[in-house]
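Morning run. Coffee first, then this:
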Amino acid sequence: MTSRAPRDNSESTQKLLEDAKAGRQEAVEELLEQHRDGLIRAVRLRLDRNLSARVDASDIVQEVLIEASRRLPNYLEDPKMPFHVWLRHMARDQMIDAHRRHRGAQRRSMDREQPLVHGEDENGPIDWSQELADSGLTPATQAMRRELTRRFLGVLERLSEDDREIILLRHFEHLGNAEAAQILELTPAAAAMRYLRALRRVKTQLSKPHYPPPPDA
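And here it is:
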């Protein structure tokens, strides 16, 4: 089952934000816990393969939630962005710090050499690759289904960082255009254009035949 972050316009989230601002610690804890699974998913999608062997996504997210708890009063006084987007920015900062600590590297792209699918998310790209592919290329057998999935992930890894990130945000994290725009610090129009261009590139690559047609039924 795909984990999605609660949206800030839900009644439950709004109530928790109000209670947290009023100083109710149990509301703070519940608010942060609601977002844990979605943050873990986002981190897993972007952890470098080498680093993921040594650092668990849940550990990074725990650091995010600790920092969020500390900074929450300031956020609640002047929320410049939706709460889940604010958490998402902190998660990115924590991933950068993790790479610095464990690899001694300077600030680098968080999307190169990524395990685009991790554990519980293995079914996600299979469904999405079928949606992107031309109907004439839809696999008729499980073997061809796996091949299309392999090609789809290969295409994502070859995309530019900007294109890959918008695909991850929209179709692996299930964010809307406005939310993706806030995370990428783009206007909604620019985010929508980037998304359409990225989809066009993925579809173009997937439309190129790499295997024989399905066997006759």
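The chain has two domains: 11-103, 122-206. Good start to the day.
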